[in-house]
Design a protein that fits this description.
Layout: E1 2-4, H1 11-17, H2 24-27, H3 33-39, E2 50-52, E3 77-83, E4 95-100, E5 103-108, E6 114-120, E7 125-130, E8 133-138, H4 153-162, H5 176-188, H6 199-209
Antiparallel strand pairs: 1-2, 3-6, 4-5, 4-7, 7-8
């Protein structure tokens, strides 16, 4: 069976959809070797990618008759790691509220302005509140920067937005706003200011964004 990747998909969410307890069972399947080599990271799939799905191996239990038994079925989870910086690029501090569907968790940013939460893999949207700041997080919507049908544009747009640059709609099109955002990013990081998504810009985007 082939699963066609859509926005919001990652290996863990695909695993949850098909009844696997761990996305590595799919990612490490030899049938997905070429996709694994192409993407490198199961959290950065591109819409249209094809993931091979084999039948999950059934679990066997030896249980005594005449008794009640509790069987716990693990749900795939994924780790969300977000770093919040102020306008000067310094780590933010303070307490946060993390909401995703019926899930609500509270905590405090660490010394690097980082929030970490492990959440069910089928959650694709969350809201984070830190004091007066409120941000909507689209989980699993980060497209790759290379080997895509839009030449990495949607992946670059998403990273630029996360870094505070205005690209307009994340649509995979290098329109005027996206080109202006690229030029601003390039100028801020001592790159050739071309407004184009060249190799040096891709490398710097990946480095600054962290993935």
């Amino acid at each position: 069976m082939k699963h066609i990747v859509v926005d919001g998909d990652c290996i863990q969410s695909i695993a949850a959809q098909y009844g696997f307890a761990d996305g590595s069972d799919i990612w490490n399947d030899p049938q997905n070797a070429s996709l694994k080599q192409l993407r490198g990271d199961g959290n950065q799939l591109h819409p249209g990618d094809k993931v091979s799905i084999s039948k999950p191996k059934p679990k066997e239990f030896n249980l005594a008759t005449g008794k009640r038994h509790k069987v716990v079925v693990p749900r795939p989870k994924r780790l969300i790691r977000l770093r919040f910086l102020d306008e000067e690029g310094k780590p933010m501090s303070g307490d946060y509220v993390f909401k995703a569907g019926d899930l609500e968790r509270t905590g405090a940013l660490d010394g690097d302005g980082v929030l970490e939460q492990k959440i069910p893999a089928d959650i694709t949207r969350a809201e984070v509140t830190i004091g007066q700041l409120r941000r909507t997080i689209l989980i699993g919507h980060l497209n790759p920067l290379s080997d895509t049908d839009d030449n990495g544009t949607s992946g670059a747009q998403a990273r630029l937005v996360n870094l505070g640059y205005a690209t307009g709609e994340i649509d995979g099109q290098q329109g005027p706003m996206t080109q202006a955002a690229l030029r601003e990013f390039q100028a801020d990081h001592d790159l050739d200011v071309t407004g184009e998504l060249d190799d040096d810009t891709i490398a710097k985007l990946n480095d600054e964004h962290g993935c």
